[in-house]
């Protein structure tokens, strides 16, 4: 009976030691992650390429240009519709209409 009690005490002692070590490891891992995050935030210039900002700027300029073209497209169509066709275009148009009929 005493031997069984000693085995049980040993098991409890091992379990508590494992739990203690594991809790210390968890806190150490959290501290390490926090330290790495601070380091990354501090040294972002070393990580991020200077060209990344240029690429992003180029994309936004292209988007703005596309947006401007979309806004200008109806105006251009109206202006083209208001103009009378040039003689060369009208003859081509007449030929195409004649061929279609």
Automatic annotation (TrEMBL):
Basic and acidic residues bias (residue ranges): 15-42, 67-101
Annotated region described as Disordered, given as residue ranges: 15-101
Highest taxon, organism lineage: Eukaryota
Name of the molecule in the record: Putative ribosome biogenesis protein RLP24
Gene: Rsl24d1_0
